[in-house]
Amino acid sequence: MRTFDDDDTNHLFILERAGFGALIEALSDAEYEVIAPTIRDGAIIYDAIISEVDLPSGWADDQQAGRYKLKRRNDEALFGYAVGPHSWKKYLHPPEQLLWRAKKKEGGFDIHAAPIDTRKRAFLGVRACEIAAIEIQDRVFLRGPHIDEAYRARRENTLIIAVNCGDPAATCFCVSMSTGPAVRSGYDIAITEIISEDRHHFVIDAAGDAGRTVLKHLPLRPAGKKGLQAAEAVTAHAQQQMKRSLDTDGLQALLQNNADHPQWDNVASRCLSCTNCTAVCPTCFCTTVEDHTDLSGENAERVQHWDSCFSGSFSELGGAPVRRSTKSRYRQWMTHKLSTWIDQFGTSGCVGCGRCIAWCPAGIDITEEAAAIRKGANS
Ligand code: SF4
Ligand code: SF4
Description:
13 helices; 8-stranded mixed beta sheet; 4-stranded antiparallel beta sheet
């Protein structure tokens, strides 16, 4: 067993279950819109909540390739499930956003940039793989040659309250991607939920000033070394439970050297090019723009919305798509995600959240496809 000194634990506190509602109240009092897991249409999704009653208490998820189902737990855990179809990119990089509006004037147009959203939001229940995904999108939108100012404003106004995973889904493989199940950085507050026969409580880790300011209002007491050990046992258990894996050894070169592998035809015979995998993926960031004018011809606007490398129009060049076949689109997506993303941004584009596996209607599994390419591959 690990030993700890006081420095390991002086930022750790215990919050009993009865006091959890005070966290949401403190966030609201600090003028954060609280976004958290809640249930809609038979799935756990992210939405604005008013109180702890809106959280999916006592629910778990059953996820397999092409399958997602909620089921009851035998306790009242608030965070006893893994990730659902939504990710936080829905808020930080929204599916649709107005870029500008234009009004005709003598000899041209007046163009007005869309107002930037500066609402304060608290994301409650962010998993370790999701923090890794946010860090990947930060690299894309904030650390490249072109800064996305709207993303920056949303990111700077977001408080991240992470939750350590205790029960991974069968589709999760964050251990292979070194992104979970324990949160290590990138959060303001981290929570570990602990339930025993006679007690339900949380170990709370206050990482930064913004988080500590909120926690000042809560009925906390020091967690000490015992609290830290209990929290670490939760994520150690989650790690042991994780059955799915992806062998990343040499994967970057493997995919780039095997563009003609017969497995690409095999997966293309199953893939529907439906774009689900890119919509649910927390790191996919591609967009397109549409311009609209009204019937008077006086007003126009440009709207950005998510696009997908699986859509026919995505690679259109000179009036025809460069990637005409499903085979070329799937190969592009998986090779970018697991290989050329590393060339481009220095990390994999996959955090092992498993969403693309559960929400693919054909049950296509990125870990199985990568393993199949490895068989009989060119080195
Ligand atoms: S891999 Fe699955 S989710 Fe992705 S486009 Fe093909 S059928 Fe749709
Ligand atoms: S590729 Fe699939 S498993 Fe990887 S981050 Fe995207 S949705 Fe999650």
